[in-house]
Amino acid sequence: MSPRRLRPDDWGWAVRAGVESAALGWVLVVLLTVLVFLATSSLDATAALTTGDALRTGTALWSLGFGGSLGLSQADSGVLSLPLTGLTLAQAAWTWSCVRRADLRGPVSGAWTVVSAAVVAGLASLAGPPGSRTWPAVLGLTALTAVVVAVQLQRRGRGSQRLSAWWDRRPHWVSPGLSLARGAAVALAVLTAAVLVVALVSGAGRASRLHDTLAGGGIVSTVGLLVLQAGWLPTAGVWACSWLVGSGFSVGTGSMFSPERVAAGPVPSLPLLGLLPTAPVGRVGLYLPLVVTVAAMVVAWRRRHVLSALRVRYAVAASLLAGTVLALTTGVACLAASGSVGPGRMVDVGPQTGYTVLLVFLEVSVGLGATAVLTHPYTRTWATEAVSGTTQAASDARHRVEARLGSAVGSGRYRHAAHPSAPSRDHGRQERTPQTETAVGEPGEPGSGSGSPE
Description:
Elements: H1 3-6, H2 11-40, H3 47-63, E1 79-80, H4 85-102, H5 107-125, H6 136-155, H7 161-168, H8 174-215, H9 219-245, E2 249-251, E3 256-257, E4 262-263, H10 284-287, H11 290-302, H12 304-308, H13 312-336, E5 341-342, E6 349-351, H14 353-374, H15 377-418, H16 425-439
Antiparallel strand pairs: 1-5, 2-6, 3-4
Helix pairs in contact: 2-3, 2-4, 2-5, 4-6, 4-9, 5-6, 8-9, 8-11, 8-13, 9-13, 11-14, 13-14
């Protein structure tokens, strides 16, 4: 490929999109961290050192959104590697906006954007604290930018032609399956939000006390602490989702938080952790995961006309595809919501990924598949024919029994007409009664045993 083709006409816009998307997130996180450090420290000769520490700490916090970590494993405070998934989502939205405004013309332009973002991320990671693993953020941010660029190019018809041709040859039931997956994801998100609201109401007091202890009453420190916890709010949402489906999550080795069991232990004094459940929900916890299945049934019911246009096996395949896509997406989210928040037992924090993936697949697929089968016209036709066949069989059986009874009655009447001299048992009993009375008649009458001739 010639150098001219490697430098497209819009390379300047492509570079700008990459630099702008990667730099702004780092600047905002570092700036907020520096402001919090300055607001909580005295304005003396050590302010310059405090600013340098804040810069390095802010860089480490920025790296948490893309796979980095803060601290050393051999240190007393341990390693903080629990991803700031809120920052990841915000970065994805900002990158999407930058790439859309750049209006990239093709894959080569997209490559310029990805490389530019990688260079900025690499330079930013150099400002991290010594010993902290901030370099994984370079890989994470580069991968995120590449995914956004690829999706944007494919949506505008400027991406891979082979991929577009392969997508055009997809089975006809794939699109309904993806539609079911989107609907089930929205339903699961709504249920998760409801769980978070309940947790917020029940644990508001504990979270408020922890927040006041850490913030110290300062406005800047209060805002900074709230922003930091907002970055972990999607992580808490993933934990709530794993709790809802029944698998639960842990905050420290040996701990467990699920609807049926709560085994807590010492946790860091982060206000967001004040929302952790303090007790199981009792016997209701056994049936709580059924709420997800019912929600999936509602989603399938709303799309029953689309599923009815498919054959039964294709409707079931679409339901299984939706369950698989949602389960895999949930698995990725569980991995992104797992990490370390300190030393010792605090290195094991997050949901049980494998168990959560399995339960989401079963609960969603069963709800979608059952509704797709039960509401399908073929099922209704088969059920109608089965009921009609059962009714007809019962009617035929009744007619056969009536015919046999009628035949038996007619046969008995024929035998009675053919042998009239053969008295019945009752008739014989009635005939023998007068003879007995004659034998024991009045004295003096003929046949009487007491009348002897004189």
